[in-house]
């Protein structure tokens, strides 16, 4: 008996009802439910109405028959759930409360779903529970609310959810549950209720006015302390997992959409409170947490991130400005980055400064009293904070002046709050150092010049930025200089005590002898640069590029992992759109260089077919790469089909097509930096450097590419790595077992001799160049190589770690490696 054939079913229903045979009617209803697999679709709605219209006496007998069927069914049987659903329909207004514990358990099971489909039959059960005077389970209320916000919501569900006001926020997220616990009085509940109304892009004047009134009733200090504790819990794992019948990303990694509105309101609220360093820190963390990538979705919740930026822009404090500047250097999501740029521009305009100047002035000292160091006394104990590289390190001395490994007990006991602030400052320093390293690395294309005194104040002698600036090379009135032994010095170590104009030194246009001399100078003074500068790759025009004229094929015909490529592009200031396996077009990856009047393009297309070559959401796993081109910055945009095909310029408003610029017209610095970016994209995201792809990947179709890339000619980056290893190897403990030959580092072990490719890190071993697969850990760790002239080359660390391992191959215990040896 199926509801798809509603005519005969209705007739049999009437016949059994007229006969008063409620036992057979219950059996027939449950058989139909089994046939429809428990999906209470539209065909059932009329049936439910007919059942509810039965006389109370007959509905009582039907309800009792359904209870018997429920009890007779085994645990976990669909009949038990179906009987409960039907019982909720027919028992409305009947005396007695049948199967209350079982009904509650089933409602709680429904509450474990992200959203409720209208065919679940949950509405009848919920109404039956409410009819007893009891409240619905909070988890079910949360599911109702999420369902109402879904595009495919049910009107019945929406009507029921509108009558439920408790709890104020949805359970399942730690911050929301803590907020509900803290909202112990009517004023607090009113505040939470108001936060949940934050559905607009930005707060309105009436919204702010109401929020201020609620804060005044509770007390600003009390509100600030309480809501800070809520913000600290945002982004933690759900307190219980959800299942989802819909197709899409894992909902357990996303924000509850009902609570997300309250999070936006919470961000706006704290911006109305008195400025406090914790406020800016918490808002910055909210932005980053909300932009965390979720597989199949992208950023977790950009709307909440944007609310955090808007809130920071409304806080008039140095800490808020510093957080905006830090985020502007770190955030890659276009919508949020646009808001950050706007907030920074507004601040700069208000202060009569340029955007670059506001970014420089926004960097706090974080309590550092000298460049990269500070001393804090806690009674008889002393904490020494020092910046080592791009990390802040805290060390302690006890009352007797002896260094100790952990925080003295007296400090933990008597100075808990001050200790907490100091540890927080250490974390803040680490975050800002990372952001400033990236900002400085992008300054090569910024065409910046500084007055000498301004530069010393904002860079060389700044307590935080100075730890980076003193490890870089600069030109003072055209003379290159670096900082060593407490002074700014030339290549011959002559002091540079004054000047007029300062720029950042770049190897483009420098004689090779000068570049090598500066590398020697850094080594002599033991300086590790925060990123490649003296060892920076230089990309000059090749004969092939002069022949093609307007495009470079230097990095064409590669196969790269799309999502990794997309992340790298965003981090380097490129704009890119993920390619979906759909009938759509997309522009190439582009980097706009407005200060040069140029736009760089890297042409890419999706690879493969839907399914094996895409994610569940349909985005390509891999891309094919093509040309690099340059256009005027205001030229019309090119685009091509995501499946592949020819790029064409999209012309609107009668505009004429614009030809790509000759590569010979591109300034050498711009050409070099753009090609360096592209080399990075390929070098990191190419499938050719994946040691597990020996078989050529899906269907083996990338075998030829994997072999040619994994063991082929070295790129400029790999050439730089080779030059460094040539100087580094003699200092290694395994120097007598290592030699550089062509594209490989040869390592002599006891079992075999190994050849490590200097570009991919892939390994061949004697006697027949047999492939050896060693998958590096996510972080290669310390390769025990001693001094390195720059930070940030992950592949160098991988190569050195593999060399250390293979040089002593008799001590290898990993079974996956041993089986290959």
Description:
A hairpin with a 2-residue loop joins strand 8 and strand 9 (479-484). The longest helix has 26 residues, at 416-441. This protein has 821 residues and is of the alpha+beta class. It has 6 domains: 6-161, no CATH class; 174-361, no CATH class; 373-439, no CATH class; 442-524, no CATH class; 543-685, no CATH class; 711-818. It is 44% helix and 13% strand.
Total individual domains: 6
Summarize the main sheet: 5 strands, antiparallel
Roughly how much helix do the residues carry, as a percent range? 40-55%
Distance between the termini: 65 Å
Number of strands: 24
Helical element count? Answer: 31
User: Low-confidence parts lasting 5 or more residues at pLDDT below 50?
Assistant: 1-6
Q: Hey, roughly how much beta strand do the residues contain?
A: 5-15%
Mean pLDDT: 87
The neighbouring-strand order within the major sheet is 7-11-8-9-10
- What characteristic shape results from the CA principal axes? globular
Going by helix content, strand content and strand pairing, the class is alpha+beta
Radius of gyration: 33 Å
């Amino acid at each position: 008996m199926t509801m798809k054939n509603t005519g005969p079913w209705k007739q049999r229903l009437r016949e059994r009802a007229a006969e008063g045979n409620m036992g057979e009617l219950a059996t027939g209803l449950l058989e139909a439910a089994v046939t429809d697999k428990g999906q209470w679709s539209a065909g059932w709605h009329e049936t439910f109405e007919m059942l509810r219209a039965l006389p109370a006496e007959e509905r009582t007998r039907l309800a009792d028959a359904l209870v018997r069927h429920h009890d007779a069914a085994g645990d976990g049987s669909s009949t038990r759930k179906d009987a409960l659903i039907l019982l909720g329909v027919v028992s409305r207004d009947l005396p007695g409360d049948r199967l209350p514990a079982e009904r509650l358990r089933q409602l709680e099971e429904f509450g474990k779903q992200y959203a409720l489909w209208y065919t679940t039959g949950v509405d009848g059960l919920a109404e039956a529970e409410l009819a007893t005077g009891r409240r619905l389970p909070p988890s079910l209320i949360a599911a109702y609310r999420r369902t109402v916000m879904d595009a495919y919501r049910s009107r019945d569900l929406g009507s029921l959810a509108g009558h439920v006001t408790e709890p104020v926020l949805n359970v399942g997220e730690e911050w929301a549950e803590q907020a509900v616990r803290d909202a112990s009085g009517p004023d607090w509940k009113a505040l939470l209720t108001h936060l949940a109304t934050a559905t607009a892009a930005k707060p309105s004047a009436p919204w702010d006015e109401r929020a201020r009134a609620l804060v005044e009733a509770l007390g600003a200090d009390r509100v600030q302390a309480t809501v800070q504790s809520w913000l600290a819990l945002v982004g933690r794992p759900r307190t219980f997992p959800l299942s989802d019948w819909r197709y899409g990303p894992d909902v357990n990694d996303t924000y509850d959409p009902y609570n997300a509105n309250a999070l936006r309101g919470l961000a706006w609220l704290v911006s109305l409170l008195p400025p406090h360093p914790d406020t800016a820190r918490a808002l910055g963390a909210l932005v980053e947490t909300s932009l965390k990538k979720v597989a199949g979705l992208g950023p977790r919740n950009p709307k909440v991130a944007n609310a955090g930026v808007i809130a920071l822009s409304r806080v008039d404090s140095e800490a808020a400005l510093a957080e905006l500047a830090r985020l502007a250097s770190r955030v890659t999501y276009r919508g949020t980055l646009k808001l950050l740029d706007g907030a920074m521009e507004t601040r700069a305009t208000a202060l009569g400064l340029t955007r670059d100047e506001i970014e420089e002035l926004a960097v706090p000292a974080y309590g550092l009293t000298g460049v990269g160091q500070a001393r804090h006394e806690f009674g008889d104990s002393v904490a020494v904070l020092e910046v080592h590289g791009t990390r802040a390190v805290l060390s302690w001395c006890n009352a007797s002046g002896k260094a100790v490994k952990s925080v003295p007990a007296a400090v933990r006991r008597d100075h808990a709050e001050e200790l907490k602030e100091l540890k927080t400052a250490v974390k803040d320093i680490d975050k800002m150092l990372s952001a400033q390293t990236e900002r400085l690395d992008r300054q090569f294309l910024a065409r910046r010049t500084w007055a000498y005194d301004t530069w010393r104040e904002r860079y060389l002698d700044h307590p935080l930025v100075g730890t980076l600036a003193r490890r870089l090379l600069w030109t003072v009135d055209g003379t290159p200089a670096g900082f060593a032994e407490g002074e700014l010095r030339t290549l011959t170590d002559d002091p540079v005590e004054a000047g007029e104009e300062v720029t950042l030194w770049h190897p483009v246009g420098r004689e090779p002898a000068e570049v090598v001399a500066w590398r020697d100078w850094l080594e002599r003074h033991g300086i590790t640069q925060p990123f490649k500068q003296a060892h920076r790759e230089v990309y000059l025009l090749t004969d092939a590029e002069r022949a093609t004229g307007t495009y470079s094929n230097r990095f064409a015909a590669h196969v790269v992992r799309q999502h990794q490529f997309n992340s790298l592009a965003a981090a380097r200031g490129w704009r890119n759109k993920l390619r979906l396996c759909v009938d759509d077009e997309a522009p190439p990856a582009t980097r706009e260089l407005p200060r040069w009047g140029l736009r760089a393009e890297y042409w890419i297309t999706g690879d493969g077919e839907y399914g094996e070559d895409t994610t569940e959401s349909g985005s390509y796993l891999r891309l094919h790469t093509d040309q690099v081109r340059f256009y005027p910055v205001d030229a019309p945009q090119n685009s091509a089909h995501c499946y592949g095909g020819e790029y064409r310029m999209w012309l609107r408003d009668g505009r004429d097509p614009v030809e790509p610029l000759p590569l010979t017209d591109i300034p050498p610095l711009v050409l070099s930096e753009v090609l360096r970016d592209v080399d990075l994209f390929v070098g990191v995201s190419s499938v050719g450097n994946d040691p597990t792809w020996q078989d050529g990947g899906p269907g083996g179709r990338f075998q030829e590419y994997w072999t040619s890339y994994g063991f082929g000619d070295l790129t400029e980056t790999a050439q730089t790595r080779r030059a460094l290893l040539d100087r580094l190897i003699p200092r290694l403990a395994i120097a007598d077992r290592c030699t550089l030959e062509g594209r490989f580092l040869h390592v002599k072990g006891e079992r075999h001799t190994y050849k490590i490719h200097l570009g991919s890190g892939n390994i061949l071993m004697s006697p027949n160049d047999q492939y050896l697969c060693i998958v590096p850990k996510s972080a290669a760790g310390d390769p025990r190589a001693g001094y390195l002239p720059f930070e940030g080359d992950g592949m160098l660390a991988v190569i050195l770690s593999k060399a250390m391992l293979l040089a002593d191959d008799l001590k290898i215990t990993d079974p996956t490696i041993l089986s290959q040896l």
